[in-house]
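Repro case for the chain-ordering regression, as requested:
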Amino acid sequence: MHIAEGVLDVSTLLAAAGCTAFGLSIGLRRLTPQTLPTAALFAAVFFVVGTIHIPIGVGSVHLILNGLIGLLLGWLAFPVIFVALALQALLFSFGGFTSLGANTLLMALPAVIAGLSLRPLLQEPSSRTKLLIVGAAAATIGILGATLLAAVMLWSTGGAALSSLIKLFVAAQAPVWLIESIVTALTVGMLGRARPTAFTLGN
Amino acid sequence: MFRLFLIIALLLPQLTYAHGLNLSLTDGSDAITGDVTFADGAPLSGASVSLQQAPGGSAAIEPAVTRTDAEGRYAFPAPRRAGEYRVIAEDGLGHRTEIVFVVRGDHRKLDATPTPSAWSRWLIGLGCLVVLFGVTAWWLSRRDRTRIETS
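-- result from build under test --
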């Protein structure tokens, strides 16, 4: 899920870049020697999974894992996703540098929302079922939020003229949502049991 | 000479890799043809493919746009004017790849610059992350040490 260069108008790009700068400033303040290894690991994970094509659905579909990143890193999702997206733009022609702020915002903001809303549920020992549900919910917030933000940005730029692109975005994310829900649920289920403190970084 | 170029071009279709997208370009006598596929070889149908002048190039042409068929193939009439052109493939979801070729006089020449493979780009990206976070870790530890010393 990337918005290419030249699609959004300047005012939308600037507004998104401003919001991303705000998110980055909060996220960077939470970067400590304790949070850094996890942040680095998930920047690498985000960078790689975004470049692997999944042969289902419409167009070129890849995992995002922003819900999982939000659960594990909170506000740190902004710098982590920003760095990974910059490298994707540089090395794989993903999105682009003028749309870097918009792409960071549409993937990192739902991650932060997922983290802020669901992390309190993981502060005490939880059953495996609860962990799986929270993981699936994080993926849902991440994917639906990103799709919604992308649709809003596209609509603010082109309105009805970009409705076909908006529909393509929504259709393409349906299989991603399903796979991410399973992956995130299983990861949270495993991590929640093995290391419950993993969900307190970046608070 | 032109036939020699043509044979070499047909024998050596070039591939570029970006975001798991491959764009091939084969130079024919009357047409530029190729296909757009995913890294696993699956064809990307319905992708937008455009033929246009390369940035700063001297080939004055109107950009031509087409879409790949069910097998990911595309075709353009071969440009006749000398200059530098590029073929750009986009899937409409923010992913694109391109390839540049040059037309000189009465023959075309595919750009010989090799594009790094997806594997090497992954390694470069991961290397950049290691350096970036390594430097950040060094800076954070240095900052914390300074704070402890001053307090």
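Ordering looks correct now. The helical segments of chain A are 10-29, 36-49, 66-73, 77-92, 100-118, 128-158, 163-194.
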